[in-house]
Amino acid sequence: MGSGVRLRLPMVRVDRAIEAPPEAVWSVLVDLDAWPRWGPTISGAALDDGGKQLTAGSTGRVWALPGVSVPFTVTEFDAGRRWAWSVVGVPATAHGVESAPGGCRAWFEVPIWAAPYAAVCAIALRRIETLAATRT
Fold first, then answer.
1. CB under 8 Å to 25, separation ≥6 — which residues?
2. For the chain, what are the domain ranges?
3. pTM of the complete model
C-alpha cells in the first residue's frame, strides 16, 4: 500500500494507504474526541454547539499542546470524503479519505506556506490508521 508526499499547488498532500473501510477512517476524522489521539499538536477540541461530530459549517475551538485554544470554522465539508477548515480565520489543513484497493487512502492537504507541517500530518495518518482498525 504505502504512503507519500506530493506537491499540489498551492497545497502539499500527505497520504497513507490504510487497510480499513473508508467509513472507519472518516469516523475518526470527524470525531472531536478522537482528535487528541491522532493529532500530535492537539490536546482537545470542542464544537460551539456542544456536538461531538463535525458537520458542514461547524465552528468551535481547538487546543494546542501548550494549552492555548483558538477558534476554527469548517469551510468545506463533503460527508464521507473531505473536510477543510480555517483556524483563527486562516485557511488550514484539509482532511480526506477515498476508497482504494484493500481499504482506503487517507490524506491531508497543507497550505504550501506551512509545508513543514506535513511531517506532523504523516504521524497523524499513522495514528488514524491505528484508531480506524478499532472501528471496523
1. 18, 97, 104, 106, 128, 129, 132
2. 3-133
3. 0.91
